[in-house]
Amino acid sequence: MKRLVEWHLEQWKMSFMRKPLLIRGARQVGKTHTIRKFGASFKNIVEINFELAEDAIPTFEKDLDPHRILQELSLRADQDIIPGETLLFLDEVQAAPKAIIALRYFYEMIPELHVIAAGSLLDFALEQVGIPVGRVASLYMYPLSFMEFLSATGNQRYIEVILNHDEKEEMAKTIHSKLLDLLGHYFAIGGMPEAIAKWVKTQNAKVSFEVQYHIIDNYQMDFNKYAKKHQIKYLQQLFTQIPYMVGQQFQYKNVHGEYRKRELAPCIDLMTMAGIIHPIHHTAAHGLPLGGQVNLEWFKLIFLDIAICQAILGFDLSSWFLEPDAQFVNKGMVAEAFVGQELLCDSQSFKKNHLYFWRRTEKSSKAEIDYVYTFKHQVLPIEVKSGPGGKLKSMHLFLDQHKKLPYGLRFSTLNYSKSEKIVSKPLYAVASLAHPDERKALESLFEKS
Question: Where does the record place a coiled coil (predicted)?
Answer without folding.
Answer: none
